[in-house]
Amino acid sequence: MGEVDQGLIDVIVEKDGHEQDSTTNQEGGGGSGVTSYVPIVVLQGQTLYSIAQNYAEECKPENMTAAEFKQEIADFNGISDPNQIQVGQELKIPKHF
Known about the structure:
With 97 residues, this protein is of the alpha+beta class. Helices cover 24% and strands 28% of the residues.
């Protein structure tokens, strides 16, 4: 494996209004066309599907459904069962440009 380029430092305002500093990974992973990701922490009541819906406008390609994006997020994070995410779990939301 090559060395990870830490890339750009952004300030992302989460959908719930909390700010967090994030590092954007320029290598990406998982899906085709992914050039970076948005780091998040799973909050109480969130599912991978609701996360996919929340970040759809910002991160997914137009021709991808929310269900397909949910699976891409799972694959990108090495999650074998998308129904088994935990509160406090750190996830990387793949971002397409």
